[in-house]
Amino acid sequence: MYMEIRDDACVIHVLILNERIIINMCSMITGTFSPNPHEIQSLGVLEFSEEGILFAGDNTSGAIHAFDFTAESKATDPFEIYVYNIDAQIAAVLGTSQANVQINDIAVHPKSGEVYLSVTRGHGMDAVAALAKVDVANQLHIVEVSTLTITSQVLNKVPDGEKRIALRGVAGSPPTKKDIAKSKWPLRMLSIVAMEYHQGELFVSGISNEEFSSVLRRIPYPFKGEESISKVEMYHIVHDNYESRAPIRSMVVKQIDDIDQLVAAYTCSPLVLIPLDELQNEAKVSARTIGDMGNGQPIDMVPFSLNGEEMLYVTNNSRSPLVIPVRGLQHAKVVTDQDFERGGKVDLHPMMPFGPIGKSIMFTGASLRIDLLNERQFVSLNRDAESGSLDLETVFTKFPFRMHNIIGEFDIPR
Amino acid sequence: MKQRIPCLDSWLHILIVLLMASHSAVFSQTPYHLVLPNEVNGTVQLNISAIPGLNPEKSGYEYVSVFVQHEGEADGSYAVQGRHTIEGEYLVFAPYFPWERGMIYVVRIKDPDTDHSYSYRSFQVAKKPAIDKAEVVAIYPSASELPENLLRFYLYFNTPMKKGQALEHIELTDASGNIDEHAFMEFKQELWSPDGKRLTLLFDPGRIKRGVSTNMELGPALLEGKRYQLHISAAWQDVYGQELFVKTTKDFVVGKAYRQSINLQDWGIHKPAANSYDPLRIHFDRIMDHALVQSMVQIEDGEQNLIPGHWEISEQEQWLLFIPAQAWQKGRYQIVIDSRLEDVAGNNLQGLLDQKQTKEENQGDTRHVIDFDI
């Protein structure tokens, strides 16, 4: 006999077999009765559909929210975005201090070009989510979420709030204070790491509550409560290891070798291909490793066109961005452990970087988040290399640089 | 909505005002009357009886803007964003996010009499003590007579409690003081609300379910006609290490078991009058689950639009009151009830706790409706 015991937060599944009670613990309630969207508890990764639906990952509540911005119209005149000290400006409109503002992601509206920002105000138990936008006139607004049409989908198999990230130092030195702070992060914060919308489906990378934790979720939109979850494994060249725990950090869908595939980047930093057809519910998928960008953690992967050629722009929190020609990914050699000598390989290893990973290029400061603003320009959330300020600024795809931090020959008048 | 706010010489003025202001919230020494918040959800209110025809959507920020006070240079800062509305004689500014305790805010007010001059006031919502006192706030069901097959208690605390030790600090005793060691279900993971302030304490379903081995060996935890006490020890600590300090005891007597599924025919509906804010009152034939009743009942109009308002549960979870946000209009309404709504024994509209359909079978219609006209 089966019975369910519930409160408003979870369902306890109780099975009675041979007069003994077997309890399958609390599972979060998914299909709630309320016609209202699932409660927004945090806003993290952002992704726009071509029509202007903004998807936002909510790791705290384990859900994805879809905000309808399809009514926005196309911008009439070209514009650029410059908001310096944007964290301080957001703090002002939220009525708080700069230290209480964290910008989690940015996304450019596909029609209007307005830049949306997911924000956390405050810390710990007091943290609240905010959605901000910078309009074409460079004015900052808080988006009044309560006036929007929102639908939500609650994810299955999300890690609970108890399990934490492992504590470790580097190269034999003990963990620092920041390493210890990182180890207090619940794994749940990695439920939704990257999102890619493609032809009516949302692809979501992240981790699940299972030991084989790296998963790709495939969710049809409009949301119907349907979700397929595939486990993803890949050969990690730098670690010389087959890995199945850490999530994909950034990804896009491209047609590679005549089929739709995810081009995906992992930390430290394999580049892999995954055919969409293989992403079936409960499937265990072996991603095809085709390259390694070297040490560091990828942040964003933005498709753009350079001199008429299709490119991927991959930013990284520890190294210069890469410009990867999509052409180079076609018919790329798939590698396994059989292709390399045993043992770990860091950046200084003669084999590294490896594969068709394009070219490492200059960038102004450090891009923390980036998206394509128009055919010629990115908009990037930059940490300024000189002042340390956090700026939202436009950079050219061909020459992603601003002049304010360098003094060269042409800065000195004759 | 970027606005300039004068700095330096104004700040001295603000400081003086701040010293004068402390906690009192109303200023009236100037030509206008201003009400300042002293709670995080408070609003800034300016009397605008001298400014006829003001449109808050267009000119709200012009008349009342609030800024975060910065150390030193304050030029070119954005105003705090929120909603301006007119309520009676007042222009009311409500920020999108609550005021932060301890932060100094500066209100810039356009003087109604002149075109280009501004006055400034500052306010601060006082800081709370770093942490609240740990205490038991409530225990549900609140009634003093509970059915024999009671399924759960909800314990509400003022601060998040340390987890994993609930059953060390909770005891059920009978009238003679004998402790029942096996009354409650033991979990690896206790059932806490996300904020850590509510524990769902389940009776071992094996003691309730008839014909299961624990029920046959130990008998039910509660027996009709007997008196029991639920004790929460004073030594239980919250996550900050504060003890509850006082022991909390709930006395109750056990009545008949609920052995019938919930039937809407047995509910009493007391209708409000048209054009009033009177509550719609629903009387249950039994004690309902405190947590579920708050999320599984709603009011809709004839076209299935949700009627906004708020719910109150009163008198030992046997009365549910709905107070509408706008006065009731004449017309047809529906009380919509999710079939998973439970009484305190876990019986719902689909059946009894220990005779419910299997998970696969109970995917049917979850909406139950009671129509009423006003």
Low-pLDDT stretches of chain A are 24-37
Q: Helical proportion of chain A?
A: under 10%
| DSSP helical segment count of chain A | 2
What is the count of β-strands of chain A? 29
Q: What is the gyration radius of chain B calculated from CA atoms?
A: 28 Å
Helix content of chain B: 10-25%
Oligomerization category of the chains in this entry: heterodimer
What ranges of chain B have pLDDT less than 50 throughout 5 or more consecutive residues?
4-29, 358-363
Number of strands of chain B: 23
Topology:
The complex is a heterodimer of chains A (414) and B (374).
Chain A: E1 2-6, E2 10-17, E3 20-28, E4 46-48, E5 53-58, E6 63-68, E7 82-83, H1 86-94, E8 101-108, E9 115-121, E10 128-134, E11 140-142, E12 150-154, H2 177-183, E13 194-198, E14 201-207, E15 214-220, E16 228-236, E17 241-243, E18 250-256, E19 259-265, E20 270-275, E21 284-286, E22 288-292, E23 298-306, E24 309-316, E25 322-325, E26 359-360, E27 366-372, E28 377-383, E29 390-396
Parallel strand pairs in A: 16-21
Antiparallel strand pairs in A: 1-2, 2-3, 4-5, 5-6, 6-12, 7-29, 8-9, 9-10, 10-11, 13-14, 14-15, 15-16, 16-17, 18-19, 19-20, 20-22, 23-24, 24-25, 25-26, 27-28, 28-29
Chain B: H1 9-21, E1 26-27, E2 34-35, E3 44-47, H2 56-63, E4 64-68, E5 82-87, E6 90-95, E7 104-110, E8 118-124, E9 136-140, E10 145-147, E11 152-157, H3 166-169, E12 170-174, E13 191-192, E14 198-202, H4 205-208, H5 213-218, E15 227-232, E16 248-255, E17 268-270, E18 280-283, H6 290-293, E19 297-301, E20 309-314, E21 319-324, E22 332-338, E23 367-373
Parallel strand pairs in B: 10-16
Antiparallel strand pairs in B: 1-2, 2-3, 3-6, 4-7, 5-6, 7-8, 9-11, 11-14, 12-15, 13-14, 15-16, 17-18, 18-21, 19-22, 20-21, 22-23
